[in-house]
Amino acid sequence: MAFIKEFGCWLPEHIVTSEEAGSWVGSDAEWVRNVSGIDERRFAPESDTVAGLAARAGADCLRRAGMRAKDLGMVFVASGTSERAFPGPACTAARLLGAEGVPAVDVPMASAGSLFALALASRLAAQLGAILVIGAEKMSRVVLREPREKGVAILFGDGAGACLVTPDAGRSEIVDSILCSDGTHAEDLMLENGAPLKMNGRSVILHASRKIPAVIRAVLDRNKVPPAEVQTYLLHQANQNLLDRIASALGIASERFFSNIRRYGNTSSASMLIAACEWCRAEGFRPGAPVVFGAFGAGFHWGALLARGV
């Protein structure tokens, strides 16, 4: 048994509007909004690192939970934009948090990384104690590389989100999760060292719009929860049009899918936890009500997690 105790997040102050982003690829803000639902995104200063972003979100989460970093059982950091091949950002983020000696594990997965880490944490918390899960991305470093592709450069932003998973008490109980991977289409979404992001947008949207509803239905069916009974769906904030497609496939009003993509763009593995943090502060878990987390990302990796408010 494991519980979600608290969320945290951190977002840079610098706002990049869709008018500015559109100008990079010869388009305007209206076009950007139509294809993505994004009005603005945040870019971190050049001096900021992924580990630094992760530590700020983690500190926010721990502060709200009233917990010391040195008392953690493990730290996970999910990111696809680390500055170096190794060591990854987890060990540095843990040191910045004051968690020296606590095992720190990198999950180098874009978009779906924080969901995979959250599911793993739910299985390990009973043995290790409280686990801090962080998703942190500095996508601006990737976006600004030349050549800037029209369907890629406008989508992404920087930020970090965090979640504290505990074995004994919290805002919600983690009930179940399903994780999936298939490398057949790995080259349809990939980032080689120092190169621009390569994305076959049509392939990604087609697979995501089918696989996410299917895995959500699978975890709900396994726990006998009808999609209409879910309080809120907290998904990776990839693209507003994709969120709307998933809602339609499940027969659920799009308003039940929390969305902050308009303000932050796609922050890859940070996005689901940033969304969860904002949703929890605005609304939060209702006792007994199910909440679904979900993500799809490069690999392809995808999955869904079911929690229930306590």
Relevant terms:
two-stranded antiparallel ribbon; 310 residues; 11 helices; alpha+beta
How is this structure best summarized?
This protein is of the alpha+beta class and 310 residues long. 36% of the residues lie in helices and 25% in strands.
Descriptive report:
It is a single chain. With 310 residues, the chain is of the alpha+beta class. The protein has helices spanning 18-24, 29-36, 50-65, 89-97, 113-128, 140-143, 150-153, 201-222, 240-250, 261-264, 271-282, and strands at residues 2-10, 15-17, 40-42, 74-78, 104-107, 131-138, 158-166, 172-181, 189-190, 198-199, 232-235, 290-297, 301-309. The relative contact order is 0.20. A hairpin with a 7-residue loop joins strand 9 (189-190) and strand 10 (198-199). It has a nine-stranded mixed beta sheet, with helices on both faces. Strands 2-3 form a two-stranded antiparallel ribbon. The protein is globular. The longest helix is centred in the last third of the chain and has 22 residues, at 201-222. The model has no long low-confidence stretch (mean pLDDT 96). The protein is built from eleven helices and 13 strands. The two termini are 13 Å apart. Helix content is 36%, strand content 25%.
